[in-house]
Amino acid sequence: MTQYIRGKSVYETHPAESKLFVDIDENEEIDSGQPYWIIKENDGITIGVLNQGFFKIDCSGNFTINDIVQGDIFYVAANGNIVRLATGTDGYQLTTHGAGNIPTWGTPTYGSIADLIFEERICIKCNKRFKIGDNIVLKVIEFDEDGNTATVPMHEQCMRLPLQKIIIKREIKEDYWYWDYEKGMKKRKRIPKMIKKTTEKKELKKGYTIHPETGNFMFAGRVVDMEEATVITKVEMSEKIYEIKEFIIK
Question: Where exactly are the structural domains of the chain?
């Protein structure tokens, strides 16, 4: 038997509750004792509080359900309302601005100019100088014992060129142990390995000067030659030790 459903709102028990009755006898009238469904506008979920797997938001005055599209983001405004932030332009990034401020979409920002600086000025493959606007790639050639990554720059288009052999001069390092007074423990760091060498150095003798205007060597008010004014002494100096290493760049 076909049943006709007729809705009837009643507010006898709760102002936010409706009853949907079933007209069994098909007389298009709601008789007493007819079955019904209770429809509650108040579902027991407090706005902004997660309950039973549901989260209710108050969108009155901000947007309607038809405004929401895939990719939209919602945030809490200063008045406590949930506000819709429409999907940003392709490639834009979402930026927050600290507590008490709303997020915004904007063009991505990167580090300051010249974040990466290297000494090499010539491509290791084509031997041509780098120019402003060149696309450059860094080729990893080694991980040293200090955990550093050794790289060499080349033009992006030069990656397909034949193998190239390069020779690199670099410092030899050694362990240096010291006491860290702040942390109360011994620590190790890597420092350049040094070698002491004795060399000869020419210096001015005591009492001799150079005239600031003429450049002459002077002693007791008279001009003297360099041989009289200088003396050769032996000086002990420390120099860094370097190693030469060969790499094949593919």
Answer: 4-40, 195-242
